[in-house]
Amino acid sequence: MSADLSLTAMLSMYAMLLIPVVIFFYLQLGIIRDTLLAAARMTVQLFLVGLYLKYIFQLNNPFISLLWVTVMLIVANLSILNKAGLKRGLFFWRSLIGVAGSTLLVSGWFILIAIQPDPIYDARYMVPIVGMVLGNCLRSNVLSLEHFYSGIRKNENEFMTYLMLGANLREATHPYLRDAIKAAVNPSVATMATMGIVSLPGMMTGQILGGAMPMEAIKYQIGIMICIFTAMVLAALLNIVLSLPVAFDDHQRLKQNIFL
């Protein structure tokens, strides 16, 4: 069992935030308020989720677990569109299909084929694994969507030249799709390449602190990293491809009303 953190220990951790706050103040970045609000929201949300997950794990009801996963998917989807600067009303369902499809496919593969818990719907596996995959898909989807549409928007003359030379929409958007996917996955490629030497990943560290043997924790970490990377690539691709029909007009020009 890992050592519990006392109230004094937690307060000391919050005191550490003074370091970035002082740096932000010195550099006049103007994000001190956002940082403190983010830390406060994180604290409240995690404690509430901790209380909620305690009962989810105790009940271990597949319908309640699926309801919680659905809430996670919807919140993540809204966050993706908001951070990517795209209107939720236009992209919500298409983006949700991309995120949910990739996350559930990869998480289901890991749980049902690799882990095979008993019962198969065990909430202790379903909720955390979906959460880890979804959290990383959120970041990659923000990067891919923002990079894709901002790239076309900033290089509209180049994009229109492709079209005037006879390219269809798929061909004209291909260079921007390629750059967007690359921008979304490059950080994860770098993380995987240095994992274990430069950093000890969170899932593995948590299992070791919880009493698991290092080799057991390592195998789980390898599995979840492969799942995360696969879901990130699949979700980034699906979200862009599924968004194309509502992002361009009949003349294959990018609609300006899709942006916030």
Topology:
Blueprint: H1 7-15, H2 18-27, H3 32-59, H4 62-84, H5 88-115, H6 123-154, H7 156-164, H8 169-194, H9 202-209, H10 214-247
Helix pairs in contact: 4-5, 4-6, 5-6, 5-10, 6-7, 6-8, 6-10, 7-8, 8-10, 9-10
Approximately what portion of the residues adopt beta-strand conformation? under 5%
- Main beta-sheet strand count, sense and barrel state: none
Roughly what is the average pLDDT, rounded to an integer? Answer: 91
- Topology as a string of helices (H) and strands (E): HHHHHHHHHH
Helix content: over 70%
Output the number of helix runs.
10
Structural class: mainly alpha
The gyration radius over C-alpha positions equals 21 Å
Question: How would you describe this protein?
Answer:
The protein has 260 residues and is mainly alpha-helical. 80% of the residues lie in helices and 0% in strands. The protein has two domains: 59 residues; 198 residues, no CATH class. It contains ten helices and no strands. The mean pLDDT is 91.
Describe this structure in a few short sentences.
The protein has 260 residues and is mainly α.
Entry keywords:
260 residues, mainly alpha, 2 domains, 80% helix, 0% strand, globular
